[in-house]
Amino acid sequence: MATQYDNLNNGHQVYGSGGAYYNESSQGFITPAKHAKKRTSNWIKFGIPVLLLVIAGGVVGAILATRKKSSSSSSSSSSSSGSSGSGSNEKIGSGRFATATNSEFMMPIYPSTTDTAAFSSPTFTSNNALAWPSDSFAPSNPDVLTTRPDRPRLIAPAYKWAALPSLIAQDPYLSAWNDTIFLNATQYYNLPPVAYVMDGPSGILDNAREVKMRIKAFAYVYRMTNDTKWVDRTWAELQNAAGNGTTPFGPDDDKWNSAHFLDTAEFSAAFGIAYDWLYDIWQPEQKSKIISTLITYGLEPGIQAYTNATVYTGWWKSNGTLGNWNCVCNGGLTMASLAILEDDWSGLAKQLLALTVDNAKQNCAMAPSDDGTWAETANYWYFGTTAHAEMASSLMTATGSHYGLLDVNPNFANTGDFHMYVTGPTSLFNWGDHGPNKFSTTANSMIFYAEQFKQPQYALFQRDQRDAPEPWSMFWYDATIKGAFWNGKALDHFFDNGLDQWSSMRSSWTDNNALYVAMKAGKNLGHQTHNDLDVGDFVLDAMGTRWAGELGSADYRAPTYFSSDIQTADRWKWYRKMTEGQNTILIGQTNQDVNAAPTIKHDSSGTTQGSSTVMDVPKDSTAFFTTDMTSAYFNAPSVKRGVRLLNGRKQVLIQDEINSSQPVMWRMHTNATVSLSGTSATLTLDGQTMQVSILSPSDGATFSTSAAKRLDSDVVPPTPDQDNPGVTVLIVSLPAGTYNLQVLFNPQWKDSTTFVTPPSVDLDNWTLRSHDS
Ligand SMILES: *[C@@H]1O[C@H](CO)[C@@H](O)[C@H](O)[C@H]1NC(C)=O
Ligand SMILES: *[C@@H]1O[C@H](CO)[C@@H](O)[C@H](O)[C@H]1NC(C)=O
Ligand SMILES: *[C@@H]1O[C@H](CO)[C@@H](O)[C@H](O)[C@H]1NC(C)=O
Ligand SMILES: *[C@@H]1O[C@H](CO)[C@@H](O)[C@H](O)[C@H]1NC(C)=O
Ligand SMILES: *[C@@H]1O[C@H](CO)[C@@H](O)[C@H](O)[C@H]1NC(C)=O
Ligand SMILES: *[C@@H]1O[C@H](CO)[C@@H](O)[C@H](O)[C@H]1NC(C)=O
Ligand SMILES: *[C@@H]1O[C@H](CO)[C@@H](O)[C@H](O)[C@H]1NC(C)=O
Ligand SMILES: *[C@@H]1O[C@H](CO)[C@@H](O)[C@H](O)[C@H]1NC(C)=O
Ligand SMILES: *[C@@H]1O[C@H](CO)[C@@H](O)[C@H](O)[C@H]1NC(C)=O
User: Fold this and answer.
1) What does the pLDDT read at residue 103?
2) Closest ligand to 359 CA?
3) Which of 65, 154, 236, 623 lies 20 to 30 Å from 545 when distance is taken between CA atoms?
4) Whose CA is nearest to atom 10 of ligand 6?
5) Given a cut of 70, is residue 94 above it in pLDDT?
6) Whose atoms come closest to the Cα of 227: which ligand?
7) Is residue 237 part of a domain?
8) Which residues are CB-contacts of 418 (< 8 A; sequence separation ≥ 6)?
9) What is its main location (predicted)?
């Protein structure tokens, strides 16, 4: 029996072996009984008077008539300007940038140019031709739930649809996104409805998210064309996911898998969107079928999760569930409830709204810490913020208020910065678990937050990313936006909150070949059991390649993978989660202490990028980050680590000061081919070369390598480790002792860089200028 719940955040323990739910003997787990007590909220106190008006006709046609093709070069610049991009500046200022095709994250390729006029500081302009019309729905008393009189009410109100064709004609981003959505919808059209595939403890989440992604695209294209074939195709998808299609879809009493409530929530959102966006075209019997299916498989399990003390499907509502589960589960139930509110004969929609909004305010909205870092991981940020943005946006368009979801936690406004700094030139600093497939999950919350938090750079950053084209972007994007996200953006940022404590340093925001190094300290607990034992972990990018990287998730299907994060938890037996699977120091071949609470110091020259995409880094531009991570180790009186940029951000030094009574290993995981020669290692990858050398200690320390797999002495995990094909561990192995270990990284830039050999300075004495020679 797995009952090690030392920590309320280890929330995924819905399953025991064989799929059984954990029972009340689970220590420390907040039992549903505690949550069954009634909460009063404004929703209940004031009741739900619903205002029904008849939509005024005529407006749509008038706006469509003004539509005309933009004569600028912008509309033709839409989807790509070739994969090389750099050097060509014909699209500057008016078009989109191409995205790379050869990197994991297909990062945008910014043209190299010093033509700075186009790249002004980020701003919302007062260009009325590109602005959304103002919304005539503005309830005066937000304490009274008043729903928008017309449809749709979720995220994309009618007045925005009416304005869209004219904006598409004028804005290259909206135009290209619209094209891609049409293309995607056409691809999905020809596929059979999403089949039910129960994927072990991960449930049917992929299925749910794929259905949601398709329905958004189908409904979008219907509304843009009036072609009812899209309505019929949507209906076929709904029928199938309700178990009324031609293939079976799950058990009759629980088709949306409430045991893994994310699945239920995402299906609920999908059905809510379908109901709402196509409200005007559904036949009455179709409407009642969608409602009955939503009630049976979405809202009823939702109310059970909230109110029934004997079910455990609602663990995610427990106080302290600061992560994506709380956002997704509350968000899906909220969107579905808003969609059917007045038509819901069960009354559950109204009851749920009285629960979900307050709960998300206390949990989901609190997930970013006071530096904006998402409490789970950089990848889970996508799931959490997508759901948070959908929920807040739906409430705003449907009722006129976000009910505090956007301002109860003032740090939420910084979470876009977290995402920008955690994104390197090749991919994320993707520590911890990477999460399931994204489907309808994107970083487009950035576009919503740009508008809500008046941070135009968030949207300017996101609009060139490959996941930007999807229906939400069409309604969240403010086309009056202008400028370049990088203009005025500091190259470095330090995230100081004790939970994560991490640093992001780079040589450019717009060069895919830029140097990027990011290192974390932080705590090993408090991340919803999605982290690794990885204090001191880092990634390093240079010359378009990731040289030190992450291994990602281990076995999500293993019954105890998420069940606990105490020291002896099974989770810490998989290589990818163990300390030895990270780019950090390993002491005594033993995992780090889960109770680690490191301290940090850092400084930066404060260098910002200007308007040019060609970043001319001053010679004295630098940054460093050090951590005393002794508390993360057993058997070591002192372990400190530091990272700094040298030589105008061309080189990187990693320094470890260790006093250990057990053997010490410096470890780094790389996809590169490694060749060794004593104190130096030559890494080659993607046609590039990185020279790594040990500067100190000067005797006895040499490099070795191994495959990325567990040491023979390790405890065996409950299920096999994932393979890490092509990954080599670069190692410096030292006996117990006291060391100042300095490792220098010299990327072999294709220019005339003269490398420096830095002086040896104790970490405690590092300053901005301590390494000038
Ligand atoms: C949206 O894209 C489709 C497919 O490319 C195109 O036919 C349609 O005209 C576009 N809509 C607008 C308003 O431009
Ligand atoms: C949507 O279409 C674009 C352009 O063809 C493609 O790159 C992308 O993979 C498609 N997205 C999905 C989810 O199919
Ligand atoms: C779709 O139908 C609506 C309602 O009749 C109309 O206002 C709109 O112009 C039509 N849109 C298109 C693209 O035909
Ligand atoms: C599916 O069939 C069931 C049983 O007839 C019915 O109650 C439900 O409304 C149907 N749902 C859909 C979406 O067709
Ligand atoms: C609570 O859940 C149990 C177990 O699923 C169920 O038997 C019971 O009917 C539920 N109680 C209520 C009031 O719905
Ligand atoms: C929720 O948790 C926080 C922090 O863990 C605590 O400060 C707060 O009192 C809790 N609230 C409730 C209602 O239990
Ligand atoms: C190796 O490359 C893959 C694919 O780009 C990436 O996901 C992974 O993080 C890399 N691994 C390392 C250790 O850099
Ligand atoms: C290493 O730590 C031990 C135990 O605290 C201490 O006695 C010793 O002096 C330390 N060694 C150095 C070189 O600081
Ligand atoms: C380093 O710092 C220590 C303590 O702050 C100081 O005593 C020492 O003189 C410094 N060493 C150098 C070389 O600056």
Assistant:
1) 60
2) 6
3) 623
4) 319
5) no
6) 3
7) yes
8) 368, 371, 372, 373, 374, 381, 495
9) other
Q: Please tell me the predicted confidence (pLDDT) of residue 227.
A: 98
Residue located nearest, by CA, to atom 9 of ligand 4: 289
Q: Whole-angstrom Cα distance, residue 358 to residue 391?
A: 12
Q: 11-25, 83-97, 551-565: which has the minimum mean pLDDT?
A: 11-25
User: If you take atom 11 of ligand 7, which residue's CA is the nearest one?
Assistant: 549
* 466 and 507 in a common domain: no
CA-nearest residue for atom 12, ligand 5, is 308
Would you give the DSSP letter of residue 413?
A: G
pLDDT in tens, 526-550: 999 999 999 999 999 999 999 999 9
Using one digit for the tens of pLDDT, what is the confidence trace for 377-400? 999 999 999 999 999 999 999 999
Average pLDDT, the chain: 88
pLDDT, residue 506, reads: 98
Structure confidence at residue 95 as a pLDDT band (50, 70, 90): low
Give distance in angstroms: CA of 466 to centre of ligand 2.
9
The amino acid sitting at 439 is: F
**Which of 671, 685, 686, 728 to probe ligand 7 with, by most ligand atoms within 8 A of CB?**
671
Task: State which of 289, 290, 291, 346 you would mutate to test the pocket of ligand 4, scoring each by most atoms of that ligand within 8 A of its C-beta.
Answer: 289
Which of 453, 482, 511 is at the close of a domain?
482
Higher pLDDT, 223 or 71: 223
Q: Are residues 201 and 155 part of one domain?
A: yes
Specify if 500 maps to a domain.
Answer: yes
CA dist 339 and 650 (Å) reads 54
Q: Let me know if residue 694 belongs to a domain.
A: yes
Cβ neighbours of 606 (radius 10 Å): 11
> Cα(159)–Cα(173) distance, rounded to whole angstroms?
20
Nearest ligand to the CA atom of 736: 8
Which percentage of the chain shows pLDDT scores above 70? 86
Q: 734: domain range?
A: 493-759
Residue-level pLDDT at 452: 98
Same-domain check for residues 734 and 693: yes
- Residue 360 in any domain: the answer is yes
Q: Which of 639, 738, 741, 763 to mutate to test the pocket of ligand 8 (most atoms within 8 A of CB)?
A: 738
Compute the distance between CA of residue 128 and CA of residue 685 in angstroms, rounded to an integer. 49
What atom of ligand 1 comes closest to residue 169's alpha carbon?
14
Residue 98 pLDDT grade (very low, low, confident, very high; cuts 50, 70, 90): confident
Domain boundary among 454, 482, 510: 482
What is the average pLDDT across 565-589?
Answer: 98
Phi, psi (5° rounding) for residue 738?
-120, 130
Classify residue 680 as left (phi > 0), alpha (psi -120 to 50) or beta: beta
Total of domains in the chain = 2
Do 409 and 508 fall into the same domain?
Answer: no
Q: Which is more confidently placed, 640 or 92? A: 640
- In which order are the strands placed within the sheet that holds 664-670? 585-587, 664-670, 728-734, 703-707
Helix ranges, 669-766 (H): none
Most confident of 69-78, 91-100, 253-262: 253-262
